[in-house]
User: Which sequence fits this backbone?
């Protein structure tokens, strides 16, 4: 009663139903309080199974809005197999409009594999990795840059050691629609949803579909197209649910993000002025931006240069920074 996650899910039941995950978390206001995480299951006989989730970070809205719309649009007759949909996975963070949960400070995408007797974020991560992810063929976790980052529109996967799984993941990622896709090398113990999906025996696919803590017509269309493309590729649907046009023509360009040297970090309090934006092609030694000290006006701005070349993947939106803030990232094209 006081540990784990409670639920009434029946993943083998045909039809469509809405339910909740309940995460016990006693608080001053309510000693038997439960964090309620909405979940929708749609099943139509045997077939492929996919778990779609958004709101892993609460301030990344493209996936949250798209999956909410998908829940309203789907009927069992439109699919084959099973879809499990978590539109606001880190529900406390979504309701607060924050990246991390205000209940425990938990960043769900750094909490896997979690623990059944930990904080709410840790308990949810444990339930996803140990119960839900293993019961699905594919996990699609939809992200964006959130409030603090502008991100290149791209799909992503984490590298699989198994060549067959890696090839399958690359194929699914390549079909999502963005002009870029990148492969993250976070290792077997990665605390991310993609690492958890891999450990659970599922194929994990993700993407960055916007940023800035908002949603635009372009970012929403790209997100909806990616959902349609994945469901069609898996054979879950036979026709697009949303029908948004493909956001780019031609093959996806694959990038690699594997080293801390591909990013520039603030080492003191200051103000960041970028010289380039996501999507720019840069070389090692090119100017990435300038770092200002507005409290010491006689101090010249510091010139920041890329240590590695490639395609600019993301940049910090907030000009004011503290030591440790990631200012800008560049990813390496893969032949």
Assistant:
């Amino acid at each position: 009663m006081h540990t784990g996650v409670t639920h009434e899910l029946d993943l083998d039941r045909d039809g469509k139903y809405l339910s909740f995950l309940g995460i016990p978390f006693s608080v001053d206001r309510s000693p038997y309080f439960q964090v309620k995480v909405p979940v929708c299951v749609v099943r139509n006989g045997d077939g492929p199974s996919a778990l779609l989730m958004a709101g892993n970070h609460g301030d990344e809205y493209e996936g949250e809005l798209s999956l909410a719309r998908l829940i309203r649009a789907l009927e069992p007759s439109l699919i084959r197999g099973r879809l499990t949909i978590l539109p606001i996975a880190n529900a406390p963070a979504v309701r607060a409009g924050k990246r991390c949960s205000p209940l425990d400070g938990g960043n769900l995408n750094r909490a896997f594999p979690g623990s059944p007797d930990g904080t709410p974020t840790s308990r949810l991560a444990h339930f996803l990795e140990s119960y839900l992810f293993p019961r699905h063929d594919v996990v699609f976790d939809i992200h964006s840059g959130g409030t603090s980052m502008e991100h290149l529109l791209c799909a992503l996967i984490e590298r699989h050691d198994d060549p067959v799984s890696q090839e399958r993941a690359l194929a699914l990622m390549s079909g999502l629609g963005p002009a870029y896709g990148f492969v993250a090398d976070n290792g077997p113990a990665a605390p991310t949803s993609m690492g958890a999906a891999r450990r659970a025996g599922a194929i994990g696919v993700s993407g960055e579909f916007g940023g800035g803590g908002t949603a635009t017509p372009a970012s929403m269309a790209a997100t909806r197209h990616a959902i349609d493309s994945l469901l069609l590729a898996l054979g879950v649907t036979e026709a697009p649910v949303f029908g948004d046009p493909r956001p780019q023509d031609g093959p996806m360009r694959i990038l690699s993000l594997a080293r801390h040297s591909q990013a520039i970090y603030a080492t003191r309090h200051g103000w960041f002025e970028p010289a380039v934006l996501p999507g720019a092609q840069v070389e090692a030694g090119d100017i990435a931006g300038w770092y200002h000290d507005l409290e010491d006006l006689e101090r010249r701005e510091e010139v920041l240069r890329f240590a590695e070349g490639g395609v600019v993947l993301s940049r910090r939106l907030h000009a004011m920074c503290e030591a440790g803030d990631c200012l800008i990232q560049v990813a390496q094209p893969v032949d």
